[in-house]
Amino acid sequence: MGRQKVYLEKLCRTFQIRNLLLRQALAECLGTLILVMFGCGAVAQLVLSGGSHGMFLTVNFAFGFAATLGLLVCGQVSGGHLNPCVTFALCLLGREPWRKFPMYFLFQTVGAFLGAGIIFGLYYDALYDYSGDETVTLIVYGENATAGIFATYPGKHLTIVNGFFDQLIGTAALIVCILAIVDPHNNPIPQGLEAFTVGFVVLVIGLSMGFNSGYAVNPARDFGPRLFTALAGWGIEVFTVRQCWFLVPIFVPFLGTLIGVWVYQLMVGFSQEGEFRDKQTQAEQEERMRLSNVSTNNMSKEMA
Predict the structure, then answer these.
(1) Element (H, E) at 80
(2) Closest CA to 130 of 114, 113, 147, 115
(3) In Å, what is the CA distance from 178 to each residue of 1, 119, 224, 254?
(4) Where does 55-210 have alpha helices with state H?
């Protein structure tokens, strides 16, 4: 037991990462991997089983709980963003430095890529069995399509314009709710329950806004798996299908983030922060007045 402890301490010293930003980025990578692995795993079960091992509700619960678990894994290290839109929102508000944004975005995308790879390996035989023939190219869109297990694609009814607003509104709603959760001036969530609350938000968005295109509302969660499918056999069509749909879940969520930040700040945030500032200023003035009165009384006693 003593020798094992020595070896573990040596391993700890050898692999300890002292660069804080890199450590945080790696934590984001692992958290996003967990989000995609469990979430896309639920989609894979639903699609490949023909509905016998899942339903729309189970997929939404899986993504909600996956978000919770991902946050629990990396939250204390990196803040548990799991989504570049969340990082972008916090940078806009000055709560995170801008140097974190590209680093988090990159590692969140890598984590999503790896999560998709795990599910691809796990359901490799089932994917080809679903296609009907191992020689058949994996299908991106249409009948027997499986690319939608990993990344989001629009429903047959959805136009690019409607898809634009779908991602815009979904991401704005996500950001508004997350800002409310992390706002210390607005009924703060008890410590330790933030992850569960965020998971609940993801679940609600999925249940109410998932029909059109699968509610990506997360550029890393969509682009990482999409890139993996392009390399794993689905080909370049994952980027060109439906008038280059992939651009919508990658770029539009950032516009939704801008709207979500401004909506929350204008309707709640600025007022709450202002009220807190006013109370703080009043308390400081009262403290100065108290100290001034004490000083005046002491001088009067000395003169007497």
Answers:
(1) none
(2) 147
(3) 45, 28, 23, 15
(4) 56-78, 84-92, 100-122, 124-131, 160-182, 194-209
The model's pTM: 0.90
Alpha-carbon distance of 153 to 47, in angstroms, equals 14
**Element spanning 250, H or E:** helix 247-264
CA trace torsion 18, 19, 22, 24 (10° rounding): 70
DSSP 17: -
| Structure tokens, 14 | 């050898």
Q: Are 131 and 142 in contact (CB under 8 A)?
A: no
Q: Token pair of 58, please?
A: 């189970």
Per-residue tokens: 246: 């992939």
The 10s digit of each residue's pLDDT in 198-238 is: 999 999 999 999 999 988 899 999 999 999 999 998 999 99
Burial of 132 (0-12, 13-18, 19+ CB in 10 A): exposed
Residue with token string 């709980």: 65
DSSP 8-state assignment for residue 67: H
CA distances from 223 to 70, 83, 157, 206, 272 (A): 18, 11, 23, 19, 36
Measuring CA to CA, which residue among 254, 61, 92 is closest to residue 171? 254
- CA separation for the pair 162, 51 (Å, rounded): 27
**Cα four-point dihedral sign 173, 179, 180, 181:** positive
Distance between CA atoms of residues 225 and 211, nearest Å: 20
Angstrom distances, CA of residue 276 to CA of 6, 218, 280: 51, 32, 6
pLDDT digit string, tens, across residues 36-79:
999 999 999 999 998 889 899 999 999 999 999 999 999 999 99
In 10 A of CB 13, how many CB atoms? 8
